[in-house]
Amino acid sequence: MSTHTNPPTPRERLVVVGNGMAGIRTLEELLAKAPDRYDITVFGAEPHPNYNRIMLSPVLAGEKTFDQIVLNGRDWYEANGIKLLTGDRVEVIDRANRSVTAMSGLTVPYDRLLIATGSTPVIIPVPGSTLPGVVGFRDLADVDTMLEAAAKGGRAVVIGGGLLGLEAANGLKVKGMDVTVLHLMDTLMERQLDRSAGALLQHELERRGITVLTGADTAEIVGIEKVSAVRLKNGQELPADLVVMAVGIRPNTTLGKAAGLACGRGIQVDDTMTTSDPAILSVGECVEHRGQTYGLVAPLFEMAKVAAARLAGSAEAAYTGSVTSTKLKVTGVDVFSAGDFTGGKGCEDIVFRDAARGVYKRVVVKENRILGAVLYGDTKDGGWYFQMLKDGTEVAPVRDTLIFGQSFGGEGAANPKAAVAALPDSAEICGCNGVCKGTIVTAITEKGLSSLDEVRAHTKASASCGSCTGQVEQLLALTLGDGYAGEAKAKPMCKCTDRTHDEVRRAITTLELKSIPDVMQRLEWRTPDGCHHCRPALNYYLLCEWPGEYKDDSRSRYINERVHANIQKDGTYSVVPRMWGGLTSAKELRAIADVVDKFAIPTVKVTGGQRIDLFGVKKEDLPAVWADLNAAGMVSGHAYAKGLRTVKTCVGSEWCRFGTQDSTGLGVKLERMTWGTWTPHKVKLAVSGCPRNCAEATIKDLGVVCVDSGYELHVGGNGGMHVRACDLLVKVETEAEVLEYTGSYMQLYREEARYLERTAPWVERVGLEYVKRRLVDDAEGRASLNARFLFSQSFSQDDPWAERANGSVDRHEFAPLAQVG
Ligand SMILES: Cc1cc2nc3c(=O)[nH]c(=O)nc-3n(C[C@H](O)[C@H](O)[C@H](O)COP(=O)(O)OP(=O)(O)OC[C@H]3O[C@@H](n4cnc5c(N)ncnc54)[C@H](O)[C@@H]3O)c2cc1C
Ligand code: SF4
Ligand code: SF4
Which residues form the Nitrite/sulphite reductase 4Fe-4S domain (predicted)? Predict the structure, then answer.
């Protein structure tokens, strides 16, 4: 007898066109509801996996790397059995045969189709708008174009003073361009902010060195082969190397229209997110629903939920439109607006201003109900006002204190924890992803979440624009009490300021702050003279940013760097002369022996970095010891410095039978090029003549391993307490390339790592891919980093010993105590 089972029913085929935020959110929701229902294929015109478009601004400003904004990496698609086709735009929908055909020629049949093609930037059709050098601000390719232009410096004109324009302006300014924003209306972001808040924002941008021209109407973009200026209708001409058009977006209906779907401003859908063809759904910015189109993620995610439920088989799910509030971070300033804030007859305006804190709030009330609200600088009550607006709550009982926010009268007006505690469970915390307080608290307790990242991963709260991060942290603190350790990442520099290292650094660049008192004054330091944490960091950041202009402040250095020798546990010092590439000579050894005898130096030791260390030197003898060593041609080995320490080498092809290249000679060249530099922390290099790696090059900050065909460059290694093997950065053929890569790598580290961060944690933090993108993929950027490194070296290669041995610098440091004063 034979048994027989039915063949499995073939799964339905779902094709998604558009690998962006709305399309993939729909898939996430669908997989949660009906993981096995479809065979899914996703087409994306961009060559990348799904990323958080909102975060392109931080990528432009250099605050985040692309890897950090990826929402679903390729492994996610693989794990969920989704076929992902990137860099392949769908060009035709054949509705009769139910298939799509992409640019590559590939045709894929579907049972259900989801169109999520987003929108395209509006390019105003003035003469010159198609010139090279004119970009929109929509995707990673636009950001790359802007970064490339910014690397050359020069001038940028941003047309459009809305959210995108201002984010672009800020990013380009941070990247060193001269930026002018042209805005047609007379206040910025007029659709989200009232005049007062718009003016505050303009003032803030101008304070950061961005020029803002309102009432500016563009007549022409001037240029022959590429853009060179923007001419306004009033005749004014603004020179420009880059023009960013950020005047609006248009739903991307090209595909839908060509397929004959009903389209107005967008692809028209009903409450089930279905288009005029029952087999085709659509979500996102490309959609028109009940006559409305949307340009923020919150409503798109609501659409995604409904589309997913329908695809999963629900007969009930319906989208009825969204009331939107805008909670944004514009160039680091929190702004919030909701409802109608134009005011007018029968409306009452309640306004609060605190110029010193840069806070402005306006609540518009009509017939005892909130009609609209605008908050600038302090948005923590945005959710509360929005909830009352949506619910139509009577505000008469709290009318007198309404403007001071929810916590007023409770635990004090400025207590954000009390404000969050007082919210009902239904209050929306994350506007982008529509997550309310109850959902977050339940996830924290039921799933045992204890960090912001975990809450983001499980609930998506604060995973998009991030402006509700503070409230989510308050919820973690409220729910876990002492069990919440806080978020380590956003730690302020020290107790003298609330700003992080990165924020202070950006301010030094954008506000052109050139001295420690300047920084402390402009950034409103809490202490008059800083502390031992911030002073050395500020000194370093200023040295790095303004080579040749800023003068090192030795008072802001730790003792070892101040006296150019390492203090030992008995209070004496150790002295290490530089030995280029670990080479020495009879003359140098003789001079060292003489110094040891003359100053009765008790211990002489060979170090791990191939140098000779003289231990037990008295502080007052240091200048004389250095003078004697200088006389034999030796300079400081900087064994105490947050700077280049040593370049360790093996004997290489000159003596060793395995050697493939002259590793010692290359090590000497590297050391001659890099000595004297100041870096966030110490830096050690090494060159090994073959993969046997006798110089241990693969646990250095940068290590070169010579091979038959050239040189492997390894980065981010560390042999200290936390051993980390290097990552391979690149393989090159010539010594000249090794030198250029080394200079550019050192400069990238100098410019972007935080003070006291070694290269190993820095590379781990920013990701090897980022370092590769900056150094390997971008030859021009690499050359300019190297040029900046060499320029800064032209001011830093003075031997600090010589300056002090002859008594011209810091004489007081070395006088015996009895003589001081
Ligand atoms: C710089 C920036 C900052 C922003 N900041 C905020 C913010 O703070 N808050 C907020 O709420 N919103 C913000 N937004 C808006 C938000 O990013 C969008 O609302 C959201 O990304 C729209 O999602 P979507 O899926 O509809 O479109 P998208 O995310 O644009 O995805 C559409 C995708 O479809 C692809 N595509 C188009 N045509 C085809 C085709 N024929 N074949 C294959 N693929 C195709 C596109 O290449 C694109 O990758 C910002 C947008 C930008 C650009
Ligand atoms: S690394 Fe290679 S070339 Fe250098 S000493 Fe060792 S075996 Fe010789
Ligand atoms: S390994 Fe420890 S004891 Fe030895 S020199 Fe380094 S810090 Fe001092």
Answer: 641-775
Per-residue pLDDT tens digits for 277-288? 999 999 999 999
Q: Is the dihedral of CA 178, 181, 187, 193 positive or negative?
A: negative
Global pTM value: 0.58
Residues counted in the chain: 821
Distance of CA 721 from the midpoint of ligand 3 (Å): 10
- CATH top-level class of 558-636: alpha beta
Which ligand number lies closest to the CA of residue 298? 1
Q: Which pLDDT tens digit goes with each residue over 77-90?
A: 999 999 999 999 99
Residue 690 annotated in ligand binding: yes
Q: Write the CB contacts of 203 (distance below 8 Å, at least 6 apart in sequence).
A: none
57 CA distance to ligand 1 middle (Å) = 13
β-bridge partners, 532: none
Residues of the chain below pLDDT 50: 1-3, 409-414, 817-821
Nearest ligand to residue 115 Cα? 1
Check: CATH 1.10.1740.10 for 12-118+252-312? Answer: no
Q: Which residue spans of the chain are classified as CATH 3.50.50.60?
A: 12-118+252-312, 121-248
496 known member of a binding site? no
Calpha distance 625→569 (Å, rounded): 20
| Cβ of residue 19 lying under 6 Å from some atom of ligand 1 | yes
pLDDT at 355: 67
Per CATH, which fold does 121-248 belong to?
FAD/NAD(P)-binding domain (3.50.50)
Q: How far is the CA of 720 from the centre of ligand 3 (A)?
A: 10
Please list the residue range(s) of the chain that carry CATH number 3.90.480.10.
558-636
pLDDT at site 420: 77
Q: How far apart are CA 464 and CA 462, in angstroms?
A: 6
- Nearest Cα residue to 250 out of 218, 298, 286: 286
pLDDT for the residue 599: 95
Q: Is 544 annotated as a binding residue?
A: no
Q: What is the CATH number of domain 643-798?
A: 3.30.413.10
β-bridge partners, 643: 678
What is the structure's pLDDT at 815? 58
Judge contact between 731 and 710, C-beta under 8 A: yes
What whole-number distance in Å separates Cα of residue 763 and Cα of residue 769? 9
